[in-house]
Specification:
Blueprint lengths: L1 E8 L7 H14 L3 E3 L4 E4 L2 H19 L2 E8 L7 H15 L6
Antiparallel strand pairs: 1-3, 1-4, 2-3
Length: 103
């Protein structure tokens, strides 16, 4: 499964990068495949391990802010691995090859 999530502290002002870095640090230290972009951090693994990492990332932000906003989206697809890479590669292949959309 792939989970894309965003965790932000509430009530700490506009500069939240330091808090978000605490959450991303938890994800990166988990050892699971992950990517962070301007809006979300995506992590790939089995349900229990991914959700545990998300929970710990939220806790890291909550420890310093008291109130947290969490947005989460999940792609639950048993048997698929390396989805973080393969999904993007598929789109890039269509863009490069000028693939025709399916009807």
């Amino acid at each position: 499964m792939i989970v894309a999530f965003s965790v932000s502290p509430l009530g700490v002002g506009e500069d939240v990068g330091e808090y978000v870095a605490d959450a991303v640090r938890v994800v990166r230290e988990s050892g699971l495949p992950n990517r962070t972009d301007a809006m979300f951090t995506s992590i790939e693994g089995e349900w229990d391990e991914v959700m545990d990492v998300v929970k710990r990332a939220v806790a890291a932000v909550e420890a310093r802010s008291g109130r947290v906003s969490l947005v989460l989206k999940a792609d639950i697809r048993p048997g698929v691995t390396d989805g973080l890479t393969s999904k993007v590669e598929t789109v890039e292949r269509y863009l490069t090859e000028g693939g025709t959309p399916r009807a």
